[in-house]
UniProtKB/TrEMBL annotation:
One of its GO terms (molecular function) is enzyme regulator activity. GO terms for cellular component: nucleus. Its cofactor is Fe(2+). It comes from the Eukaryota. Keywords: Iron, Kelch repeat, Repeat. The lineage of its organism: Eukaryota, Viridiplantae, Streptophyta, Embryophyta, Tracheophyta. Pfam families: Kelch_KLHDC2_KLHL20_DRC7. SMART domains: Kelch. This is Putative Kelch domain-containing protein.
Length: 324
Protein backbone atom coordinates (compact mmCIF):
# COMPACT_ATOMS: atom_id res chain seq x y z
CA UNK A 1 0.00 0.00 0.00
CA UNK A 2 1.46 3.34 -1.07
CA UNK A 3 1.83 6.06 1.51
CA UNK A 4 2.91 9.67 1.68
CA UNK A 5 6.32 10.79 0.47
CA UNK A 6 8.12 13.88 1.65
CA UNK A 7 10.50 16.44 0.21
CA UNK A 8 12.50 18.61 2.60
CA UNK A 9 13.27 22.19 1.59
CA UNK A 10 15.72 24.28 3.57
CA UNK A 11 14.19 27.75 3.79
CA UNK A 12 16.56 30.65 3.23
CA UNK A 13 16.80 33.36 5.88
CA UNK A 14 18.09 36.52 4.17
CA UNK A 15 18.96 38.16 7.46
CA UNK A 16 19.53 37.10 11.08
CA UNK A 17 16.33 36.33 12.95
CA UNK A 18 15.64 35.40 16.58
CA UNK A 19 18.36 32.76 16.33
CA UNK A 20 18.78 29.30 17.75
CA UNK A 21 16.27 28.13 20.34
CA UNK A 22 14.16 25.21 21.51
CA UNK A 23 10.93 24.75 23.51
CA UNK A 24 9.39 27.59 21.49
CA UNK A 25 6.34 27.75 19.24
CA UNK A 26 5.46 28.89 15.73
CA UNK A 27 2.12 29.43 13.99
CA UNK A 28 1.70 30.14 10.29
CA UNK A 29 -0.90 32.72 9.27
CA UNK A 30 -1.06 33.32 5.53
CA UNK A 31 2.49 33.85 4.26
CA UNK A 32 4.01 34.61 7.67
CA UNK A 33 5.29 32.48 10.51
CA UNK A 34 4.88 33.90 14.02
CA UNK A 35 7.42 32.74 16.62
CA UNK A 36 7.19 33.17 20.39
CA UNK A 37 9.01 31.86 23.45
CA UNK A 38 11.81 29.36 23.79
CA UNK A 39 15.24 28.93 25.31
CA UNK A 40 18.88 28.95 24.23
CA UNK A 41 20.17 27.96 27.65
CA UNK A 42 18.04 25.18 29.22
CA UNK A 43 15.12 26.52 31.31
CA UNK A 44 16.02 30.18 30.66
CA UNK A 45 13.33 31.90 28.54
CA UNK A 46 14.88 33.99 25.76
CA UNK A 47 12.51 36.95 25.31
CA UNK A 48 8.92 38.18 25.09
CA UNK A 49 9.02 39.36 21.48
CA UNK A 50 6.79 38.16 18.67
CA UNK A 51 9.18 37.39 15.81
CA UNK A 52 7.67 37.27 12.33
CA UNK A 53 9.16 35.43 9.37
CA UNK A 54 7.92 36.36 5.89
CA UNK A 55 7.77 33.07 3.98
CA UNK A 56 7.68 34.89 0.66
CA UNK A 57 10.40 37.47 1.21
CA UNK A 58 12.45 35.20 3.56
CA UNK A 59 12.96 38.08 6.00
CA UNK A 60 12.47 38.53 9.76
CA UNK A 61 10.82 41.39 11.61
CA UNK A 62 9.67 42.28 15.13
CA UNK A 63 6.43 44.28 14.95
CA UNK A 64 5.45 46.96 17.41
CA UNK A 65 2.74 45.35 19.53
CA UNK A 66 0.05 46.56 21.91
CA UNK A 67 -2.00 45.06 24.71
CA UNK A 68 -1.28 42.34 27.27
CA UNK A 69 2.19 41.16 26.25
CA UNK A 70 2.96 37.75 27.80
CA UNK A 71 6.11 37.44 29.91
CA UNK A 72 8.93 35.25 28.50
CA UNK A 73 8.32 31.49 28.68
CA UNK A 74 9.36 28.06 27.44
CA UNK A 75 7.29 24.94 26.71
CA UNK A 76 4.47 27.06 25.28
CA UNK A 77 1.94 26.21 22.53
CA UNK A 78 0.57 28.37 19.71
CA UNK A 79 -2.30 27.61 17.35
CA UNK A 80 -3.82 29.79 14.64
CA UNK A 81 -7.48 30.22 13.75
CA UNK A 82 -7.99 32.68 10.92
CA UNK A 83 -5.93 35.79 11.64
CA UNK A 84 -5.78 35.12 15.39
CA UNK A 85 -3.12 33.10 17.21
CA UNK A 86 -3.87 31.48 20.58
CA UNK A 87 -0.99 31.03 23.05
CA UNK A 88 -1.36 28.88 26.16
CA UNK A 89 0.71 27.96 29.20
CA UNK A 90 4.43 27.39 29.41
CA UNK A 91 7.03 27.89 32.10
CA UNK A 92 8.41 31.27 33.22
CA UNK A 93 11.85 32.54 34.32
CA UNK A 94 11.22 31.11 37.81
CA UNK A 95 10.54 27.67 36.28
CA UNK A 96 6.90 28.02 37.34
CA UNK A 97 4.10 26.43 35.32
CA UNK A 98 1.62 28.88 33.74
CA UNK A 99 -1.99 28.70 32.57
CA UNK A 100 -2.76 32.02 30.89
CA UNK A 101 -4.47 31.96 27.52
CA UNK A 102 -3.58 34.87 25.24
CA UNK A 103 -4.67 35.79 21.76
CA UNK A 104 -2.56 37.68 19.25
CA UNK A 105 -4.42 39.48 16.47
CA UNK A 106 -2.01 39.38 13.52
CA UNK A 107 -3.96 42.02 11.61
CA UNK A 108 -3.56 44.60 14.39
CA UNK A 109 -0.55 43.20 16.34
CA UNK A 110 -2.55 43.27 19.57
CA UNK A 111 -2.14 40.88 22.52
CA UNK A 112 -5.19 40.08 24.69
CA UNK A 113 -5.24 38.08 27.92
CA UNK A 114 -8.32 35.83 27.63
CA UNK A 115 -8.12 33.72 30.80
CA UNK A 116 -5.89 33.00 33.79
CA UNK A 117 -5.98 31.90 37.42
CA UNK A 118 -8.88 29.63 38.32
CA UNK A 119 -10.44 29.92 34.87
CA UNK A 120 -9.51 27.24 32.36
CA UNK A 121 -7.02 24.38 32.48
CA UNK A 122 -4.58 23.96 35.36
CA UNK A 123 -1.05 25.32 34.99
CA UNK A 124 1.26 23.37 32.66
CA UNK A 125 4.13 23.36 30.17
CA UNK A 126 5.31 21.03 27.43
CA UNK A 127 1.69 20.22 26.65
CA UNK A 128 0.13 20.11 23.19
CA UNK A 129 -2.55 22.06 21.35
CA UNK A 130 -4.51 21.93 18.14
CA UNK A 131 -7.48 23.60 16.45
CA UNK A 132 -10.66 21.97 15.17
CA UNK A 133 -13.57 24.09 13.99
CA UNK A 134 -13.95 27.04 16.36
CA UNK A 135 -12.23 25.29 19.25
CA UNK A 136 -8.66 25.33 20.52
CA UNK A 137 -7.82 22.03 22.25
CA UNK A 138 -5.15 21.63 24.93
CA UNK A 139 -3.95 18.25 26.19
CA UNK A 140 -1.58 16.92 28.85
CA UNK A 141 1.83 18.32 29.64
CA UNK A 142 3.81 18.87 32.83
CA UNK A 143 1.68 20.27 35.63
CA UNK A 144 2.46 21.67 39.06
CA UNK A 145 2.14 18.23 40.70
CA UNK A 146 3.21 16.01 37.81
CA UNK A 147 2.26 15.02 34.29
CA UNK A 148 -1.31 15.45 33.07
CA UNK A 149 -3.73 13.59 30.80
CA UNK A 150 -6.65 16.01 30.61
CA UNK A 151 -8.24 17.52 27.50
CA UNK A 152 -9.71 21.03 27.41
CA UNK A 153 -11.40 23.00 24.65
CA UNK A 154 -11.58 26.80 24.35
CA UNK A 155 -14.59 27.94 22.33
CA UNK A 156 -13.37 30.97 20.38
CA UNK A 157 -16.96 32.07 19.69
CA UNK A 158 -18.29 32.06 23.27
CA UNK A 159 -14.93 32.70 24.93
CA UNK A 160 -15.47 29.82 27.35
CA UNK A 161 -13.33 26.86 28.42
CA UNK A 162 -14.89 23.39 28.25
CA UNK A 163 -13.51 20.48 30.30
CA UNK A 164 -13.72 17.36 28.14
CA UNK A 165 -14.33 13.94 29.72
CA UNK A 166 -11.20 12.32 31.09
CA UNK A 167 -9.55 9.72 28.84
CA UNK A 168 -9.49 6.01 29.55
CA UNK A 169 -7.22 4.70 32.32
CA UNK A 170 -4.86 3.31 29.67
CA UNK A 171 -4.04 6.87 28.54
CA UNK A 172 -1.20 7.68 30.92
CA UNK A 173 -0.39 11.26 31.96
CA UNK A 174 2.33 12.54 29.64
CA UNK A 175 4.56 15.42 28.67
CA UNK A 176 5.61 16.26 25.13
CA UNK A 177 2.67 14.45 23.48
CA UNK A 178 1.42 14.98 19.96
CA UNK A 179 -2.07 16.39 19.46
CA UNK A 180 -3.78 16.69 16.10
CA UNK A 181 -7.28 17.05 14.64
CA UNK A 182 -8.37 14.88 11.73
CA UNK A 183 -11.73 13.58 10.57
CA UNK A 184 -13.60 15.59 13.21
CA UNK A 185 -11.69 13.82 16.00
CA UNK A 186 -8.85 14.77 18.32
CA UNK A 187 -5.85 12.44 18.27
CA UNK A 188 -3.35 12.02 21.13
CA UNK A 189 -0.12 10.53 19.83
CA UNK A 190 2.73 9.16 21.97
CA UNK A 191 4.50 11.31 24.63
CA UNK A 192 6.64 10.77 27.74
CA UNK A 193 5.40 9.31 31.05
CA UNK A 194 8.62 8.30 32.80
CA UNK A 195 9.40 6.44 29.58
CA UNK A 196 8.76 7.18 25.93
CA UNK A 197 5.28 6.00 24.84
CA UNK A 198 3.95 4.59 21.56
CA UNK A 199 0.18 4.55 22.07
CA UNK A 200 -2.48 6.51 20.17
CA UNK A 201 -5.81 7.67 21.62
CA UNK A 202 -8.74 9.39 19.96
CA UNK A 203 -11.48 11.67 21.33
CA UNK A 204 -14.76 12.19 19.47
CA UNK A 205 -16.26 15.60 20.43
CA UNK A 206 -19.71 14.54 19.15
CA UNK A 207 -20.05 11.41 21.30
CA UNK A 208 -17.60 12.64 23.97
CA UNK A 209 -16.03 9.17 23.91
CA UNK A 210 -12.37 8.16 24.02
CA UNK A 211 -10.89 5.22 22.13
CA UNK A 212 -7.55 3.44 22.33
CA UNK A 213 -6.48 3.06 18.70
CA UNK A 214 -5.36 -0.34 17.47
CA UNK A 215 -2.74 0.99 15.09
CA UNK A 216 -0.55 -1.16 12.88
CA UNK A 217 1.99 -0.96 10.07
CA UNK A 218 5.42 0.68 10.21
CA UNK A 219 4.96 2.26 13.63
CA UNK A 220 7.35 4.92 14.88
CA UNK A 221 9.41 3.91 17.89
CA UNK A 222 8.26 5.41 21.22
CA UNK A 223 8.98 9.15 21.37
CA UNK A 224 7.99 12.59 22.66
CA UNK A 225 8.54 16.30 21.86
CA UNK A 226 8.19 15.67 18.12
CA UNK A 227 6.58 17.63 15.28
CA UNK A 228 3.02 16.65 14.34
CA UNK A 229 0.57 18.04 11.80
CA UNK A 230 -2.57 16.79 10.04
CA UNK A 231 -2.99 17.03 6.29
CA UNK A 232 -6.32 15.58 5.22
CA UNK A 233 -6.73 12.10 6.66
CA UNK A 234 -3.02 11.81 7.43
CA UNK A 235 -1.22 12.68 10.64
CA UNK A 236 2.46 13.40 9.94
CA UNK A 237 5.12 12.86 12.62
CA UNK A 238 8.73 14.02 12.34
CA UNK A 239 11.67 13.63 14.71
CA UNK A 240 11.38 13.73 18.48
CA UNK A 241 13.19 12.33 21.48
CA UNK A 242 13.46 8.53 21.42
CA UNK A 243 15.76 8.11 24.42
CA UNK A 244 15.79 10.73 27.20
CA UNK A 245 18.95 12.21 28.68
CA UNK A 246 20.07 11.22 32.19
CA UNK A 247 20.18 14.99 32.84
CA UNK A 248 16.50 15.40 31.97
CA UNK A 249 15.69 18.73 30.37
CA UNK A 250 19.25 19.98 30.99
CA UNK A 251 20.75 17.44 28.60
CA UNK A 252 20.26 16.08 25.11
CA UNK A 253 18.72 12.66 24.64
CA UNK A 254 18.74 10.62 21.49
CA UNK A 255 16.69 12.18 18.69
CA UNK A 256 15.09 10.83 15.53
CA UNK A 257 15.15 12.24 12.01
CA UNK A 258 12.46 9.91 10.66
CA UNK A 259 9.15 10.79 9.01
CA UNK A 260 5.95 8.81 9.49
CA UNK A 261 2.32 9.18 8.46
CA UNK A 262 -0.75 7.70 10.15
CA UNK A 263 -3.83 7.12 7.99
CA UNK A 264 -6.60 8.02 10.43
CA UNK A 265 -9.17 6.03 8.42
CA UNK A 266 -7.27 2.72 8.46
CA UNK A 267 -5.05 3.48 11.51
CA UNK A 268 -2.05 2.17 9.57
CA UNK A 269 1.37 3.78 9.95
CA UNK A 270 3.79 4.16 7.04
CA UNK A 271 7.37 5.36 7.16
CA UNK A 272 7.56 8.24 4.71
CA UNK A 273 10.07 8.03 1.91
CA UNK A 274 12.15 11.19 1.54
CA UNK A 275 12.48 12.42 -2.05
CA UNK A 276 15.89 11.89 -3.58
CA UNK A 277 16.13 15.57 -4.51
CA UNK A 278 16.04 16.60 -0.85
CA UNK A 279 19.75 17.47 -0.81
CA UNK A 280 19.60 19.21 2.56
CA UNK A 281 17.90 17.39 5.44
CA UNK A 282 16.97 18.73 8.89
CA UNK A 283 18.56 15.79 10.72
CA UNK A 284 17.69 14.44 14.17
CA UNK A 285 16.04 16.91 16.53
CA UNK A 286 13.30 17.46 19.08
CA UNK A 287 11.72 20.27 21.13
CA UNK A 288 11.13 22.11 17.82
CA UNK A 289 8.63 24.76 16.81
CA UNK A 290 6.36 23.48 14.05
CA UNK A 291 3.19 24.44 12.22
CA UNK A 292 1.13 23.42 9.27
CA UNK A 293 1.21 26.01 6.51
CA UNK A 294 1.99 26.76 2.89
CA UNK A 295 5.21 27.54 1.08
CA UNK A 296 4.91 28.58 -2.58
CA UNK A 297 1.28 27.33 -2.56
CA UNK A 298 2.35 23.87 -1.34
CA UNK A 299 0.70 22.68 1.86
CA UNK A 300 3.02 21.07 4.37
CA UNK A 301 4.86 21.41 7.67
CA UNK A 302 7.16 24.27 8.72
CA UNK A 303 9.87 23.34 11.26
CA UNK A 304 12.02 25.93 13.04
CA UNK A 305 14.94 25.25 15.36
CA UNK A 306 14.90 22.76 18.21
CA UNK A 307 17.48 20.79 20.17
CA UNK A 308 20.14 18.58 18.59
CA UNK A 309 21.92 15.39 19.70
CA UNK A 310 24.87 17.57 20.81
CA UNK A 311 22.54 19.68 23.03
CA UNK A 312 23.15 22.66 20.75
CA UNK A 313 20.07 24.72 19.92
CA UNK A 314 19.26 25.08 16.25
CA UNK A 315 18.13 28.13 14.28
CA UNK A 316 17.42 26.75 10.83
CA UNK A 317 14.07 26.53 9.04
CA UNK A 318 12.82 23.60 6.97
CA UNK A 319 9.60 22.95 5.08
CA UNK A 320 8.24 19.47 4.49
CA UNK A 321 6.34 19.15 1.23
CA UNK A 322 4.33 15.88 1.38
CA UNK A 323 2.86 14.11 -1.63
CA UNK A 324 1.26 10.78 -2.53
Amino acid sequence: MAGLKGQWIMVEQKEPGPGARSSHAIAVVGEKGYVFGGEFTPRVPVDDKMHVFDLKEKTWSVPSVKGDVPPPRVGVTMTALGDVIYIFGGRDVENTELNELYSFDTSANVWTLLSSGEIGPPHRSYHSATVDGNRVYVFGGCGVKGRLADLWAFDTVTGEWIKCPDPRNDCLPRGGPGLSASGGKIWVVYGFSGKELDDVHCFDPLTEKWSLIEDSGEKPSPRSVFCITSIGKYIIVYGGEIDPSDLGHLGAGQFSDELFSLDTETCVWKKMEVASDSDVLPGPRGWCAFSGGKLDDNKGVLVYGGNSPTNDRLGDIFFLNPSL
